[in-house]
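Q: My collaborator sent me two sequences in one message, no labels, and asked for predicted structures for both. Can we handle them in order? The first one she listed is below.
A: Yes, handling them in the order given. First sequence, followed by its structure tokens:
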Amino acid sequence: MEPQRPHNGPRDDARALTLLNQHARTATAFQVLAPGMHHWFARDSGMVGYTDTGSAWIVAGEPVASRDHTIPTAEEFVAHAQAHGKRVAFFATEGALASSPRFGRVLIGEQPVWNPMQWPHTLSASRSLREQLRRARAKGVVVRTIAQSDRKSDAALVRLMQRWLATRAMPAMHFLVELEPFVHRESRRLFVAERAGEVVAFLSLAPVSARNGWLFEHLLRDPVAPNGTAELLVDFAMQQLRAENVTWATLGLAPLSGSVSGWLRMARTVARPLFNFAGLAAFKRKLGPTSWEAIYLAYPRERSSLLAMIDGLRAFAGRSLLGFCLHTVRRGPTPLLRALELSLIPWTVALALWPASPWFPSPAVKWVWVTFDVLLLGALYRLRQRASQRHTIAVAVAVTMDTIMTLTQAALWNVSRTRTLLELLMVIVACAGPALAAVVLWGAVRRRAVLAANHRP
């Protein structure tokens, strides 16, 4: 017997919200209402919210169902997906599926949990947290709740989100971290931190109804916000929840924290220039959680855990992983600018030591290129030391001209004189280097323009 609704049918947010109010136990439960999510309803009272990557359906946590129906709903969904030729993975589960022999699991991190009723004790036990709150208040930061009808604040939040995204090394991600605080706003709670009447940070909460709790879903801080602003928002929200006798709250998954496998620890280290997993976990730990809960990726045992992880990453990327990587390069992230700067040092030294013939029309041309690279190295160093937008544009223009001249010399001089495959590869590398640098630098220009356009002095 088929489920009541096919996988590609229209969403039923009203029906999903009813089930969420009855059975939402996991921090990810409310994400089934995020844009791009599909809804699948089981024969019994339960549902699955998932995103379609093309070859796989990635579920937002565990099924939204009663405890007795969680595993049967998951198993029924897997069968339904397999009938449509799709792989399945349950991303960010809290362990309910572990008792089923049908599923394997991989630890992907931990989530910190608080009891807001104990928040005063947390404050009294943490001098550093109290000091952060004091600093923010001393800088004139105040926190308030946003009413649903406050459209002026909505516009300020949009500007803040655009500025925050412009500071990120990677593009906006999707799936469980979709930045959509206004979707089903009537069920969410929004708080803003302001300084001199300008929004400098905001916090959105999503309900976890079956646990009398809330997920601290998005916590965004403007680059110019004073130290302690994020902590002040958390404190305000915790005080509000405590006044309402709420007993459970979480800041959500700290990915790759805890006793994850060796290859995930390696990934945490390698990815640090683009995403500081350890720093995120440290921030959450600083807020003094009551406990930490293990979070898993669950998948059918007959499938590969590595493939399930890759499918999950594609769900967050919202596209192919290669496309996401290329988009990251186009953004001009600061770590990549630093990598270009470092790679230019050995390249310039090698260029100076390399014989002029047959690579250059004359020794003078060679030393012009060496001089240019030395000047570019200085410009990139200054760019890293908080350069202006005008300086960034100037460097991008210079590197673009470098790309054009390098390609011209390669076409008119080098290609006809290459004799071996190695020589041809060297010419290709010489052309690709400045071209890649130009793409990265213009990406940095665009991100800085977004920051400037949304700045309110």
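Q: And the one she listed second?
A: Here it is, processed independently of the first:
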Amino acid sequence: MNDPLAGEMVFVKGGTFMMGCTPEQGGDCRYNENPAHRVTLSDFYIGKYEITQAQWKAVVGDNPSRFQGDDLPVDTLGWDDTQEFIALLNEKTGGNYRLPTEAEWEYAARGGAKSRGYKYSGSDNIEDVAWYVENSGNRTHPVGTNMANELGIYDMSGNVWEWVSDWRRDYGGNPQTNPAGGQSPDSERVIRGGSWYDGDMDARAPYRGSGGNGCRYCHSGFRIARGSKR
């Protein structure tokens, strides 16, 4: 099949950043965003947009979404559902797609090496970049209709929550390189970015949510990543 993600992956130059509760967040940090710690990442690619319903249908065939529309992000997904999509996509295209790690997701949301230190992904004004509870009209919106962040990536704040690969874990203060997150199957998976259903606190770049692998939420979706080499 033709690759439905061709041309929609953004190259993210690796680098070092402070992950977690950083000064621009002011007093809004939650307990699980501490301590802020230094993380170094290798180059990677990440989706310019959240996976759309058209892309989901091209790979899987059905459409589980509560809000229907080809250019809307696919929603009502559990973490296990993302793995089904990725396995089928890689089988059909010969790619090596995966979910981003939590650290990759936050680095990209912050603008990577081009970061300007914004509170949300691409702005200090949430209305510029996010569909959230105050402006969404209680539904998702077509991907890419708000302002992009410094890397040209859309909707990393708001629209739908995005599953990442990591198990939930507490942060440590030591520097890390390419962290992959916790390993406990008794934990939950991390979900990032806030959604149409949630407030401005949840749309902040470092905010961390979580859920069980099989939990399907009407405000959850995902975006794709891959390494720097095909």
